[in-house]
């Protein structure tokens, strides 16, 4: 990750210790989930050569040879993509809360709505 980390990501990171200290479970869960979603979005799929030229060994099938051969830089998301990820996280919680409420599970719906509200604070 570079020095130009998206401001919303830094805001999430900065807010996490406070949510943990305050024992704000909905905020803690939502922030952790949003940070994980951002990290997952930055992951790069490592492709194997089409000609099957990946090195093999009797001990480690399909391994890469050489120092750093399996290393690949992570994608760097801009602020718009990061905001979109956090927005999707919020929207998924609201949709799930609606489903829980329709089934009469008010407690779980309220928890998810509290998590969505915690994420809303970063989107404004």
User: What is the number of helical segments per DSSP (H or I, 4+ residues)?
Assistant: 4
The first-level CATH class name: Mainly Alpha
Helix content: 55-70%
Please indicate the percent range of residues in DSSP E strands (runs of 2 or more).
under 5%
Radius of gyration: 20 Å
- Specify the biggest β-sheet: none
- CATH-defined architecture: Orthogonal Bundle
User: Terminal Cα separation, in Å?
Assistant: 25 Å
CATH topology: Hypothetical Protein Yqey, Chain: A, domain1
Uncertain runs are: none
Mean pLDDT: 84
Task: Find the structural class using helix and strand composition.
Answer: mainly alpha
Number of DSSP strands? 0
What is the succession of H and E elements?
Answer: HHHH
Outline: elongated
Tally of domains: 1
What's the oligomerization state? Answer: single chain
Describe the structure.
By secondary structure, the chain is mostly helical. The chain is built from four helices and no strands. Helix 2 (25-42) packs across helix 3 (79-102), helix 2 (25-42) packs across helix 4 (106-123) and helix 3 runs antiparallel to helix 4 (106-123). The two termini are 25 Å apart.
